[in-house]
Design a protein that fits this description.
- This protein has 155 residues and is mainly α.
- It has one domain: Up-down Bundle (Four Helix Bundle (Hemerythrin (Met), subunit A)), CATH 1.20.120.
- It contains six helices and no strands.
- It has helices at residues 2-20, 31-62, 69-93, 102-109, 113-117, 121-154.
Length: 155
C-alpha cells in the first residue's frame, strides 16, 4: 500500500513539475530524446503484455490447474524472459521507471509452479497484490512518459 501511495505521490510531483516548467515550442523534445521516449513507450507496452501472461500462468496453477513438466518448463522460460526484459526496461528507463526494483522481489517469491500450487492463500494473495502493484507502477510510468510527449506536442 505504501508503494502505491509513494508512486502516486511521485507521479503527482512529476506532473506538477512538468506543469510548472512548461516549455515553449522552441524547446521541444529533441528528436533523439523523442525517439528514446517512443522506444520507452513501446518497450513498456510490450512488457505489460508479458507481465499479464506471467500472471495468468501462475494464477491458473493456484486456481487448481495441474502442474506438468511442460507447464513448469514454460513457466520458468517465461519467468526468465520477464527478468531479462525487466532488466532491459530498467536500463532503458532509468529514473523514469517508477518502483522498478519491486519486480525482482516478486520474481524471487514466485520460484516455480510446484511451489505456487502449495502456497497458502494468504501468501498467494500477497504475491498477487505485489503483481498488481507492479502493473499499476508500469502503467504509471507509461502514462508519465506519454503525458510528457503529449505536453511537448501541445507546446
Amino acid at each position: 500500500m505504501r508503494a502505491m501511495a509513494r508512486s502516486a505521490q511521485d507521479l503527482r510531483r512529476l506532473f506538477l513539475n512538468m506543469a510548472a516548467t512548461k516549455k515553449s515550442a522552441s524547446t521541444a523534445i529533441p528528436p533523439k530524446e523523442r525517439e528514446h521516449l517512443e522506444e520507452c513507450v513501446a518497450a513498456i507496452k510490450s512488457f505489460i503484455e508479458l507481465w499479464v501472461q506471467f500472471y495468468w500462468s501462475f494464477r491458473r496453477i493456484f486456481s487448481g490447474d495441474t502442474v506438468t513438466v511442460q507447464k513448469e518448463l514454460q513457466f520458468l522460460q517465461l519467468k526468465s524472459e520477464v527478468a531479462r526484459r525487466h532488466q532491459y526496461l530498467y536500463d532503458l528507463l532509468g529514473n523514469l521507471y517508477i518502483d522498478g526494483a519491486y519486480i525482482t522481489d516478486l520474481l524471487r517469491k514466485v520460484v516455480n509452479l510446484e511451489k505456487i500450487s502449495h502456497t497458502q492463500k494468504e501468501n498467494y494473495y500477497k504475491v498477487e497484490k505485489g503483481w498488481h502493484t507492479i502493473l499499476i507502477n508500469l502503467n504509471d510510468t507509461l502514462i508519465t512518459i506519454q503525458f510528457r510527449m503529449d505536453q511537448e506536442d501541445k507546446s
